[in-house]
Amino acid sequence: MTDAPMLEPVKPDTSGRSQWWDVWDQFKTHKGALFGAAVFLFIVLAVTIGPLLWTIEPTFIDIRARNSGPSLAHPFGTDQLGRDIMARMMAGGQVSIAVGLTAMLISVLLGTLIGVVSGFFKRLDGVLMGLTDLFLALPLLPLLLVMVMLFRETLSRSFGPEMGTFILIVSAIGVTSWMQTARIVRGEVLALKEREFVLAARSIGTPSRRMILRHILPNVLSPIMVSATLGIATAIITESALSFLGLGFPPDFPTWGRLLFDAIDYLQQYPERVFWPGLAISLTVLSVNYIGDGLRDALDPRIRGR
Amino acid sequence: MLTFTFRRLLLAIPTLVLISLIIFLLLDLAPGDPLADQPLSIPPEVRQKMRDALGLDSPAYVRYLLWAKQFFWVEPLVFVDWVAGTSFSEGMQRIVSWQFRAPVFDIIIQRLPQTLWVVGLAYLVGVMIALPIGIISAYKQYSWFDQIGTFISMIGFSVPPFFSGVLMIVFFAIMLPWFPSIYDTTLVVNDFESFGQQIRQMTLPVMVLALQTTAQLSRFMRASMLDNLNHDYVRTARAKGMTEKVVLLVHVLRNSMIPVVTVIALGIPSIFGGAIITEQIFKVNGLGQLLITAIYANDLPMVQTLAFIFAVLIVLCNLIADVLYGLLDPRIRYD
């Protein structure tokens, strides 16, 4: 919990424990969440530290060793060009998880901004919630595909093929997935606004900006954190879906979705190649979903301490 | 209730107009040229005439209004003609696909049965499986059945359709050659054998889609049942001496179905969206596959029309969900 210093509880805590210890205690009791956290940590470590230990380049072509099965030299085997699948899985995981985290950040920032503003300022509420409803009514997957199709060339030219696709996919996913967060946050803010401590803060003349930053935001942090966690999962799935439809990253810059897509062509001869990237995506999403589940329970003070 | 429905319907109109405008403006940025696949030997003046005929050089608002007129006026007229045998739409220009050189709606009508069969059946199967699982999970909370149910629905949430579909192909089409991995649209069902074949080729895509529906709905059903099981009226019903079956299936189930029914209504458009990937995997040439090929081929009228139809479905199902909620739950009155 890196945000802890900012969030010292308002009432003095005699035991000297911050509320985050209570959250952790509750989180620990949720076995699935703990297991999910361990798996997610393992996957993140594997894709970040893994390439330092497993030094075969993911793009290194060893054409003589192509299509080889699992061996000591290549634990997951090699693909049709003789590239090591384990190295490609690690490289792909880095991109997939980076896309998931960044897209989640964008969507949570947007959602929180719109939710807080529309809950706090009555005048903007109608417009912003109308916008949210409009976005919810858009057919998102087709629009995502169209967006990727339209802007891929332009962005690739200005940022290079890898970085351009990354920016495009991350912002496209972020822009189309903030609505749930905005709705939840707005609801929480509307409820908070009626509370006495907000009235007290207002009566001593706190300006709106500080009111939001000091009083509102820390109190809506738990739903934001839960939807952020779940947002990682959706972002990873969406990116893989785009890659699977052939509209994601270029083939020499693999993600898990792209690896799965490439492996489909060899489904009959080498079905195990589909298995690894699919398993990685599913495991990551499963673990993240379990973490979200546990966080939701742990951050709910009505459940905590029961 | 009627005034509410009417007001919501009126409100849906500006929403839909705005959505169609957004889709149009987004597509308007498309860099592709619809005449790019024509031979280079066409002289420039002929090419220009073709551009004029397609209306490519007119300003954006003219093209948008033309599309809107075709979608909201010409196509309904064509439909009326087709049903009643009249000829209102004679001589009117319909929305024409650049890729197929045929009216967009004719192609959609061709593709619709496949999507409806596969997606609709999958949704039905998903609902039929999800409801009993949700009910039993809630009634026996924290039992082994509930734990397994939770785990399976977590898997249904987490395993994306492009992986579960491929896994099914690996297991049930390659390792055990029980089902075909490709959906054959040309199959004509006229006897028992071809009917069996139709069932076999529908099994895998329906299973993939149904897994997703089951995962979400069974969780929802369970939560809704749990909410209701602790209410006082349940205790009253038991105290009156009603059998457990009646308490559960009549009293609790009817009350817990209220939110579940609306979720079922809300899920219909998302199933159409999710079917894009499933149709791609099993090569079902339905609406989703049509959209993908249209996007690849830069067929803007087709993309525009299909995306808008999806949007109409979403808005309509939202409306139906709201109205259903009011109808089923007498505590909720919108007026």
Automatic annotation (TrEMBL), chain B:
Record key words, sorted: Cell membrane, Membrane, Transmembrane, Transmembrane helix, Transport
Topological type in the membrane: Multi-pass membrane protein
Give a yes or no for keyword Ligase in this entry: no
For this protein, the parts annotated as crossing the membrane are 116-139, 151-179, 257-277, 306-328
Location in or out of the cell: Cell membrane
Cited Gene3D superfamilies: MetI-like
Q: Does the keyword Membrane apply?
A: yes
Q: Which CDD domains match?
A: TM_PBP2
InterPro entries, alphabetized: BPD_transp_1_N (IPR045621), MetI-like (IPR000515), MetI-like_sf (IPR035906)
Main subcellular location? membrane
| ABC transmembrane type-1 domain residues | 112-321
Q: Which family does it belong to?
A: Belongs to the binding-protein-dependent transport system permease family.
This protein is called what?
Answer: ABC transporter permease subunit
Source organism per entry reads Hoeflea alexandrii
Q: Taxonomic classification, please?
A: Bacteria, Pseudomonadati, Pseudomonadota, Alphaproteobacteria, Hyphomicrobiales
